[in-house]
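Q&A log
Question type: sequence-to-structure
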Amino acid sequence: MNFGGFIDDSSGPNDGLGGARIVADVPYNTPTMPTGVFSQPRLVSSSIPKNMFNSPGLSLALQQPNIDNQGDETRLGENFEGSIGRRSREEEHESRSGSDNMDGGSGDDHDPTTAAGDKPPRKKRYHRHTPQQIQELEALFKECPHPDEKQRLELSKRLCLETRQVKFWFQNRRTQMKTQLERHENSLLRQENDKLRAENMSIRDAMRNPICTNCGGPAIIGDMSLEEQLLRIENARLKDELDRVCALAGKFLGRPITGPPLPNSSLELGVGTNGTFGTTMATTTTLPLGHDALPTMVVPSNRPATTLDRSMFLELALAAMDELVKMAQTDEPLWIKNIEGGREMLNHDEYLRTFTPCIGLKPNGFVTEASRETGVVIINSLALVETLMDSNRWAEMFHCMIARTSTTDVISNGMGGTRNGALQLMNAELQILSPLVPVREVSFLRFCKQHAEGVWAVVDVSVDTIKESTTFVTCRRLPSGCVVQDMPNGYSKVIWVEHAEYDESQVHQLYRPLLSSGVGFGAQRWVAALQRQCECLAILMSSTVPTRDHTAITASGRRSMLKLAQRMTDNFCAGVCASTVHKWNKLNAGNVDEDVRVMTRKSIDDPGEPPGIVLSAATSVWLPVSPQRLFDFLRDERLRSEWDILSNGGPMQEMAHIAKGQDHGNCVSLLRASAMNANQSSMLILQETCIDAAGSLVVYAPVDIPAMHVVMNGGDSAYVALLPSGFAIVPDGPRSHGPISNGHVNGNTGGGSSSVGGSLLTVAFQILVNSLPTAKVTVESVETVNNLISCTVQKIQAALQCES
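Response status: OK
Response body:
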C-alpha cells in the first residue's frame, strides 16, 4: 500500500514534521486551495508516485536505526496519528450522510474559457441527497461499483438527479471505500511496527543481559576459555583438510570443487550438529570421491537433514536435472540403436565424455544399466507430476514395481502453489517378480521442475555418498526420471530415462541378461506400466461400459471387485519378493529345491486374510516359448484343467468380466470351477490378468461365494479373506521386445523360435497350512508346497510341449 497521496512532502523547511501532515486537514471548501495539489475534490489523490517507505513521516516511524534516540520519531508518530484521527472523524461524518455532493461535485462547474479577472468564481452550492436516493445509490453500488453510462442515465431519471451527480457520487463512494481499506492496512502496518519494535527491544535486552544456557544465571564474558581455544585450533585443521579434499576431488572429476558454505561462527563449525569434533565436515569429505574404493554402497540413516545437507541436496538435484534433460533430448552418439531389437542403448564412452559423475565414480564390482523409452499416455503433465511427487499415489500407479516407498524429508514444496522446484528425500523398494532377483532398496532425491508451459521434468538421484550411512546396499540410482510434455488432445508425451549401477553378484545367472540390457528395471517397464494404469483409470471414469463386460454389475460393484483384485495382486507381489510390507521368515529346508524360496508368516487380526500360518513358495524357470503364448495359455479358463488342481479336472466358466484396458488380457474375472459330485458346491476363483510391453501377470485366489455376492453388489471388499497365487512372465532378454505389442503377437509363437526368444516364468503359491497362529510349520507342509510348485511347472511344460 502506498501513502504518497496522504503525506505532503513539500510543506516547507520543517521536513521532519511537515512530512507527517495529512491531506484531510485541508477542508474541501477552502477557496485558497492550491490547484496544483487538488484538481478535483477527491478523498485521495489519484497519483501515487512513491513507495510507502519512501514517505518521510512513515519511514521514520517504521525504520528506526537507533532505538535509544526516539524523541523526534515519537513526536512525529503522535502528529501522524492525530491527523489520522481528525481525518477519520471527518470521513465518518461523510459516510453517515451517505454522499454530500457539491453542485456538480467537480471542477467542471468552472468555465475554462472565462478569464480569471472578468468574473469572480461563483460560490458552490451544496445539495444533500435524500435518504431514499442514498438507499438506491448504495443498493446499486453493492451490485455494480462501476456502472456504465446507460445505468447512470437510468438511475438519474429514477432519482431525479443529474447524470453527473450520479457519476460523481459513485466516484466519491469508490474513493471512500479505497480510503477505508488503506486506513485498515495502515493500522495493520502500525501494529506490525509495534510488534517489531517490541521484539527488537527484547533482543537488545537479551544482548545486554546474557544468560548462561547451562545454569540459567547471568553469563560472565571474560577471556577465551581453553576449550574454545582447542575448538578454534580444530576448526583451522578441518578447514585445511577440506581444502585438500576439494583440490583432490577436482583432479578426479575434472572440475573445481568448492566446499560447502561454512557457518559464520567458527565455534559452530568445530562442534558440528551434535557436539562432537568434525561431525559437520565428515559428511563432506566423502562426496567428491564417491567411495570408488569400496565394493558396496551404504544406505543413509534416517536422520533429519541439516542446513548443510539441504544445500548439498539442492546442488545435487540441479546437476541431476541438467543431466536428465540432456539425456532425454540427445540422440546419437549418446544413444545408439541396437541392431537386433531396435532398442536404444547408452554409449558409455560418450556418456563419460559428456557428463561428470554427480554422485562419484562407480564402485568396484558394480555394473551399469541404462535405457530410454518414449510413449504417449492418457494423462496431462500436471496430474502425472502430482502422482510422482506423492509417494502413496506413485506406489499405487506402479504397484507391481514398487514394494514400498516413503517420503522421509520434504526440503521444498515448490513455488507459487505448484510443484515447480519441489525437492524431497525418499526411500523405495523396487522389485522384479522373481525370488532370484533381490529387492532394490534405494534412498534418493526427487526433484521436480517446470521447463516451459506444459513441460515438466522429474528426476531421481541417489544420496548414498552425501548422507551418513549405517548399512550396505547393492544399488544406487544415477539421474533417472521423465520429461513430460502436454499434447493438444489431452494426452502427454513422456520420455523416460533409467540409469542405475548395481552389484551383479547378487542376481541369479538366469536374470542377468534381462537386467544388464535395461529390460528388468528399465524405462520400457515404467512407461508400459504407466500407460496400462492410465488406460485403466480412463475406462473406470468413463460412463460407458466396454462391450466385453457381458455381466450386469453395478458401478459400485465394479469398483469393489477391482479394489479386491488390486489387494490380491499386491499381496501376491509381496509374497514373491519378500518385501518389508509383510514380515516373512525364510525357511531353509534340506528337501526343497535350490531355486525354490519358502517363507512363512503369521496372519493375526487381518480381516483380509484367513487367520493362521501362511506358507509362501516361489520359483522361477526358463521356458522356450514366447511370453505371449505362455500368457494366453495360463489365463484361458478352458485350459485351466491342464495345470490347476483347483479346476477339479474340468474346464472353468467365466461368471463375471471387468475390462481394464483395450487389450483383452487386461481384465478381472470371476471363474467358477465344476463340482466333482452333486454333494459338493462349486468354487469361485477371482482372477486378475495384466499384460504390457514389459511383461504379463496372472494372479488368482479362491473366494467365498456369499462374500463375493456382497462385493458384486457394491459391498466392502476389505473383509473378503483370500490368499493369492499366480504367475509372472517376462521375456528372457531384449530379443523379445517385438512380440508383445498391445497384446498381439508380431512374430512366430512357436516353442523354440529364436527370433522370439523364451520366457522367464515365476510361479508362486500362498497356502494356509494351519489355522492356529501359534502352531509350528511342519516338514510335511513344506514338502507339500514344494511338490505343488514342481508339479505345476511340469504340467505347464508338458502342455506346451517344452519338457526339454
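Response note: The chain has four domains: 15-105+124-199, 229-289, 307-539, 543-799.
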